[in-house]
Every structure is written in C-alpha cells, then in structure tokens.
C-alpha cells in the first residue's frame, strides 16, 4: 500500500480577525473568550494548554479559544465560522492521544469546558442526559449515591469530557463488561457545521425509525459537528468489586488464562488487562500504585489485572478464590502468583498500576503510541518485532529509543504498543512508520483500536480502510461539512480542501 504523508497546510481557511472577535463578543461574555488579538489580548501563555496536546507532541498556533455556555451559543459561533470559512477545532478535556484536539495551524478552538450541567437522570431506566462538557469523573461521582455507574472508565477520567469520549468512541478499561459507546449512547445533541442544531437527544431504549444518525458522530472526532449533549444508558452499580494482579511466567499463557478466567468467572468478569514486564517496571519506577512484593514479580514476563463486579460479595469472592486455587494447583500453572486485593486501598492501588501506565510512559520520555487491534496471540510478536526492528536501525539505545513496551485490553484484542524515546525525532518516526502499520495490516488488524485517527494517522487510514470505505467516509464528510471547517485534516482529508501530498 502506498504510504502517503499529508502536509498540514490549510491555506483556504480564514484566520480569526478582530472583526470576528467583535462578533464573538456579542455572543459570549469576555470571560468566555481567550484571544491574543485585540481588544481581548489574553497573554499567549494562557492559550498554551489549548494549543498543545496531552503528550506535548502536537502543537497549534490558535489565537482564539471560545468557551460557550450553551448549545445556542455554540450554534451562533459555528454559524458565523461557516459563513466566514473559519476552521474550528472542537475541544473537550484535551486528553486525546492522536493530536485531534489541538489546531494544526491557527484554527479557532471551541472548548466545551463551560458546558458541564447534568440535564436529567432517571433512576428507573438509568438514563443520564448531560452537557457534552461534563468531566467523566464528575458524572461517575454524581451517580455514586444514585447507585449507578457510567458504562465507561479510563485513566483520563479526571479530565476527559463525555462529549470527547463520544467523539472518540473511547473504549477504556471496562468495554469487556459494558460494551462500546455505540451501544450505550442513546441520543446526541449536535451543532452541525452550518450552525443547525440536530436534536437527537432521545431517552428511548428502542427507536427504529430510519437511519440512526447519532452513530455517525460517535467516533467522528469532531469532523461532522460539535456534540453538545449526550444521553447515555448507565448501569446499576455493582455491589461488590474485587481485583487480582496475576503474574505470568510467559506471554503464551495469556490466551489460555483468558479462556480459563472467562470460563470460571463468567458473568462477574468485568476487566482483563494485560501489562508486560517492562511496562510494569516503568509504572513502579514512576510511582504508579504500590509495587508488588519481589517474590510476586520474580520470573514474571507479564501481568494480568482481573476485575470482578457483581451483586453478591460472598458469591463473587468464592468464585475468585476458587479460580486462584485452581490456577495455582494446575501443573504446570499458567500463573506464578496472584495478588488479591483485600481492602479498598489495595483494590485502588492495583488499578493505579494499570491506569498509571500512560503517565509513567510520559514521565520516562516521549512516547510514540500505537493503539492497535491485532489477534491476541500476536501481541508479543508485534512488541518484539518492533523492538528488533529499532535495534537493527541502530536506534535502540538510551539517547534514542529507551523502551518498547506493551499493555492493553486483552478482551478487546487491543494492544497499546508504546515506544518510549528520548525525544520525538523524524528519524525514529521514519523507522516506526509505516513499519508498524504494515505489521498491523499483515495481521488484518486496525491501526486505531480506540484512540482514533486524529492528525497522527490521517495518512495511514488506507492500512485499515479500503478505498471504497474511505470514499464513502469522504462523501459523508462533504455532505455534512461542504466548506470543510470542522477539524480539518483530521481524520478525513477533503479533496481540494487544503491538504497536499508531500
Ligand atoms: P479531546 O482530547 O479534547 O478531543 C478528542 C477528539 O474529540 C478531538 O478530535 C476533538 O476535536 C473531538 N471532540 C472533543 N470534544 C468534542 C465535542 N464535544 N464535539 C465534537 N468533537 C469533540 N482512550 C481510550 O479510548 N481508552 C482509554 O483507556 C484511554 N485512556 C487514556 C488514559 C490517559 C492517561 C490519557 C491521557 C488518555 C487516554 N485515552 C483513552 C485517550 C482519551 O482520553 C480519550 O480519547 C478521551 O475520550 C478524549 O476525551 P477528551 O474530552 O479529552 O477529548
Ligand atoms: C490505556 O488503555 C489508554 O491506558 C492509553 O488507552 C494507552 O498509553 C497508551 O498508549
Ligand atoms: Zn486503552
């Protein structure tokens, strides 16, 4: 397949001008406008968090960030931008890992952070309707006394927003239990690229009245409109949750272990997460969770974090203990040992190791992240082959690539291959791409399991989508956004709309 890189120049879009700013001042109060242009004149440093992504890998040069407080304000802003051909980057918590949430050049940033009201909750159906800017953790906290949980959990929960989660179709740590947002999101309210408000904020479980338009916005990465409201089916809170960190002598044991754990725990299994040894060591090095005892770690090639969630503590604990007993008794055993959390603090600490991996990678260096779907039995091969490839290029040393590690969501066939380097350099990138994408294509996998395409993988889309699919994606984009103002360059390029082949 041809590997084509797209230059990120968006020449035909208008930059925000003082005239535009004057118009935005009629829609928003001064506190909701951050701009380095006069008359607003915010110091450039205040725009930095909106111009730089979580990894500090992608950098924009936006002069203006707007923080609307209502759907009507979003609509008025977008309508104006469409008329003036101003490119817009919808932004949630800016925790995305593919550079989709920051400008490429000086596009206008519309940040949803000021739209954080919960609109309604029905404790019989469990249906929650919330503004798109609600932080995931706030929604979870809100639901605790109501005995429900958001059917989504991820390490970025303290900052990411439900609108961002929907727009990336985030997967996370419990997809195994609750399924994808394509199933749990019941309705959306979206401001379309011409400013029209599409109200599909239904709270119906069943609604087969023609095309299910909301599905198009789930995972659209802000290219078809700005999500302003979300209706989501929450789940009854489990009465009992347990977890155990299993240490495995060999990666080859992961797949048989997964089968056995599923067989024995069946309906109470809620997470099955894989961490390779190098990733674990980095988590511990950077203080994520409490390190396991040496004897638990000795001889471990990798770890698996298993969680159960159910409605009867005694029953669940009995099942989990029985599983551990059976595993330990088997000869040879699939596991070396297991650390079972016996207190809420230990439960949280085991999760902290897993959830803290992303942060640990960033503390260790600059992480090249490949969020891929490949057959489970190929996880290790992908990690090892990538490491050897980098070694053969002379790049595996402390001044270039420091570590090649893997972790991820086994139940979803989703590996997070992380290449941790001293710096982001064109040489390392050229060694990794298209190498990793070709490897993924060889296994008929996906180059993006859950993080999206963003700006990072626009050019690599053909590795996972055939030309007919891409053509229809482009047609949909053109239909919704004929002027191409919504998050241009990510993840679908539009003909004649500014992206040129290098
Ligand atoms: P942003 O980063 O602000 O935006 C992401 C994309 O969505 C951009 O393209 C943006 O334009 C668009 N967007 C945002 N809000 C809107 C809106 N209201 N309307 C239209 N478009 C919008 N991802 C996973 O899938 N699983 C994980 O387990 C996971 N763990 C993570 C752990 C850490 C520590 C970090 C830093 C990230 C993790 N991520 C994970 C990636 C990221 O958190 C998710 O993609 C998240 O859903 C992004 O939400 P956000 O509000 O930060 O969106
Ligand atoms: C996770 O599963 C996230 O922890 C982030 O999706 C993955 O750090 C990564 O590469
Ligand atoms: Zn993940």
TrEMBL record:
It catalyses: (R)-lactate + 2 Fe(III)-[cytochrome c] = 2 Fe(II)-[cytochrome c] + pyruvate + 2 H(+). GO terms for cellular component: mitochondrion. Keywords: FAD, Flavoprotein, Oxidoreductase. Transmembrane segments: none annotated. Its cofactor is FAD. GO terms for molecular function: D-lactate dehydrogenase (cytochrome) activity; FAD binding. It comes from the Eukaryota. Residues 58-237 form the FAD-binding PCMH-type domain. Belongs to the FAD-binding oxidoreductase/transferase type 4 family. This is FAD-binding PCMH-type domain-containing protein. It comes from Fibroporia radiculosa.
């Amino acid at each position: 397949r041809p590997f084509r890189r797209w230059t990120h120049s968006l020449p035909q879009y208008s930059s925000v001008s003082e005239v535009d700013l004057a118009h935005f001042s009629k829609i928003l109060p001064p506190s909701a406008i951050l701009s380095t242009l006069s008359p607003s004149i915010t110091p450039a440093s205040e725009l930095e968090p909106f111009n730089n992504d979580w990894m500090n890998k992608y950098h924009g040069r936006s002069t203006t960030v707007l923080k609307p407080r209502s759907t009507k304000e979003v609509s008025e802003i977008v309508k104006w931008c469409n008329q003036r051909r101003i490119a817009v980057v919808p932004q949630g918590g800016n925790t995305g890992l593919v550079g989709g949430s920051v400008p490429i050049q000086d596009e206008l940033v519309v940040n949803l952070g000021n739209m954080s009201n919960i609109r309604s909750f029905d404790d019989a159906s469990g249906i929650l309707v919330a503004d798109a800017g609600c932080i995931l953790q706030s929604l979870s906290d809100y639901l605790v006394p109501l005995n429900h949980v958001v059917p989504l959990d991820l390490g970025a929960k303290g900052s990411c927003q439900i609108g961002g989660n929907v727009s990336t179709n985030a997967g996370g740590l419990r997809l195994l239990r609750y399924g994808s947002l394509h199933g749990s999101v019941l309705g959306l309210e979206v401001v379309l690229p011409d400013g029209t408000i599409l109200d599909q904020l239904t709270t119906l479980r069943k609604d087969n009245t023609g095309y299910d338009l909301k599905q198009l916005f789930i995972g659209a990465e802000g290219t078809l409109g700005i999500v302003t409201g979300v209706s989501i089916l929450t789940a009854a809170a489990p009465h009992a949750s347990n977890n155990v960190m299993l240490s495995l002598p060999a990666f080859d044991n992961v797949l048989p272990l997964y089968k056995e754990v599923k067989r024995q725990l069946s309906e109470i299994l809620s997470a099955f997460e894989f961490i390779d040894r190098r990733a674990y060591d980095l988590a511990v090095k950077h203080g994520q969770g409490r390190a396991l005892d040496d004897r638990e770690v000795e001889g471990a090639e990798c770890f698996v974090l298993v969680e159960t969630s159910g409605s009867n503590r005694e029953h669940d604990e009995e099942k989990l203990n029985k599983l551990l007993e059976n595993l330990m008794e088997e000869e040879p055993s699939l596991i070396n040992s297991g650390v079972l959390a016996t207190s809420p603090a230990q439960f949280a600490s085991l999760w902290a190791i897993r959830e803290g991996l992303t942060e640990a990678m960033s503390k260790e260096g600059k992480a090249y992240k490949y969020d891929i779907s490949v057959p489970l039995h190929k996880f290790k091969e992908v990690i090892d082959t990538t490491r050897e490839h980098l070694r053969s290029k002379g790049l595996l040393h402390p001044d270039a690539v420091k570590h090649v590690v893997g972790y991820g969501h086994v139940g979803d066939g989703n590996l997070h291959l992380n290449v941790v380097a001293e710096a982001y350099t064109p040489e390392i990138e050229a060694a990794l791409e298209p190498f990793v994408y070709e490897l993924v294509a060889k296994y008929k996998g996906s180059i993006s399991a859950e993080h999206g395409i963003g700006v990072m993988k626009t050019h690599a889309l053909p590795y996972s989508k055939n030309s007919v699919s891409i053509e229809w994606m482009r047609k949909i984009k053109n239909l919704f956004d004929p002027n191409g103002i919504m998050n241009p360059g990510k993840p679908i390029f539009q003909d004649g709309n500014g992206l040129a082949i290098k």
